[in-house]
């Protein structure tokens, strides 16, 4: 089952076009399927959903911190505990995300038209690094003093610092709680939709039942070891 | 050994064409969420999180008064990091270049900082009730720019040669009003009034850019950071105060600062950024780079991941 072909009828309104686009983005029944290919049977698959779960815990703990305000956690034991929740959920988020990334690399999960899924995953990783970084800059403590005065040099050296002032915790906090989480959330949705659109990548060299096998050629172009086979 | 002609690409089978098994995604998500939540709570309860108090200019003046005086002299002489920085703070330096492209210079001066006037002389003008300071400022104002620099440079040099950098032990010399200004600056910081003078805005003081530049111009902040292994040559960017994990995902960025030619280059920041941009682009484009995209085939970790499938299908 692949993404269904576009309807051939001409659509005249933007609403119709948008509806058709949404309806055909993911094959019917695959947005939230209750069955998966039989090869989806490994602990590696768990790390994607663990990353998503950690992201939610990060968002919730960050939202509670936001209720208290910028410096609440310095003066309140409850605030400090929430800050601890935020810190450790971020560490878990990155740990699971990196394992997920490496898992997808070794699975060559970009095969079969899934290149954009990989690209959005890397974008997600980068946006997450930026989000975490601005969080460290917004701590209003010694750590943020030191990190900001050090980080400014790298950002200034390539001209970014002229627009993204890491010495200004007010600007960094707004990037941290509004702009970057929005970007991360948006790319996350894009990434997950792409995963559901294309389905879970089959094992390397696996052939679906009923498909013809033209030799044992690899589906990636390549490999000197394939070419050098006697 | 004969080389076989390169086989044509075969499309990857449609994942939806494979046999399926029951798989409850929602249940998987809820279990994952519960596991992550419990793990987060346990880690937070057991290890807490670091929160070393910010260094205020007042605490700096109290703990390291000599450093405050030396920093003030450096700002007046125009020899500190901020005074010679260049964009985005001033035009006193060209900044770094990336492949001969002066990106730092092109970005321009967006946060103007005149280190001598904005960080030292300006705040001192608020000390209207201090005759020593007002007298020193009057003499400073009437001197030529060259004379000011000569005084401040001489005093800065003398401080660096004094035992422990103590102003009281500085050799006698022609330093003009600079010692009085630097001492007044330290007194101002001690009262807590310097923060107010350096933060922007008449009431809402949300931007401590100038205060942070001043603090970083001194050696106290770096001394405290190095004591916690946070220096640039100590993998500092990815470390955290205490024994907490910081930002280990920045390990590759931090790595380049530990090795030549980066660690000894005046252009290190631009070089490291440029290199990281190339490497990041490479990571993003792995699926499209011949050779790189074939590594998973050459090192068959995938056979471990899909061992059940390969065993059952006889691969």
From TrEMBL, chain A:
<dbReference type="GO" id="GO:0008121">
    <property type="term" value="F:quinol-cytochrome-c reductase activity"/>
</dbReference>
<protein>
    <recommendedName>
        <fullName>Cytochrome bc1 complex cytochrome b subunit</fullName>
        <ecNumber>7.1.1.8</ecNumber>
    </recommendedName>
</protein>
<dbReference type="Pfam" id="PF13631">
    <property type="entry name" value="Cytochrom_B_N_2"/>
</dbReference>
<dbReference type="GO" id="GO:0016491">
    <property type="term" value="F:oxidoreductase activity"/>
</dbReference>
<feature type="compositionally biased region" description="Polar residues">
    <location>
        <begin position="221"/>
        <end position="230"/>
    </location>
</feature>
<dbReference type="GO" id="GO:0022904">
    <property type="term" value="P:respiratory electron transport chain"/>
</dbReference>
<keyword id="KW-0472">Membrane</keyword>
<feature type="domain" description="Cytochrome b/b6 N-terminal region profile">
    <location>
        <begin position="14"/>
        <end position="204"/>
    </location>
</feature>
<keyword id="KW-0812">Transmembrane</keyword>
<feature type="transmembrane region" description="Helical">
    <location>
        <begin position="85"/>
        <end position="103"/>
    </location>
</feature>
<feature type="transmembrane region" description="Helical">
    <location>
        <begin position="115"/>
        <end position="137"/>
    </location>
</feature>
<feature type="region of interest" description="Disordered">
    <location>
        <begin position="211"/>
        <end position="230"/>
    </location>
</feature>
<feature type="transmembrane region" description="Helical">
    <location>
        <begin position="173"/>
        <end position="194"/>
    </location>
</feature>
<dbReference type="InterPro" id="IPR027387">
    <property type="entry name" value="Cytb/b6-like_sf"/>
</dbReference>
<feature type="transmembrane region" description="Helical">
    <location>
        <begin position="43"/>
        <end position="73"/>
    </location>
</feature>
<dbReference type="GO" id="GO:0016020">
    <property type="term" value="C:membrane"/>
</dbReference>
<dbReference type="InterPro" id="IPR016174">
    <property type="entry name" value="Di-haem_cyt_TM"/>
</dbReference>
<dbReference type="InterPro" id="IPR005797">
    <property type="entry name" value="Cyt_b/b6_N"/>
</dbReference>
<keyword id="KW-1133">Transmembrane helix</keyword>
From TrEMBL, chain B:
<protein>
    <submittedName>
        <fullName>Uncharacterized protein</fullName>
    </submittedName>
</protein>
<feature type="transmembrane region" description="Helical">
    <location>
        <begin position="270"/>
        <end position="289"/>
    </location>
</feature>
<keyword id="KW-0472">Membrane</keyword>
<keyword id="KW-0812">Transmembrane</keyword>
<keyword id="KW-1133">Transmembrane helix</keyword>
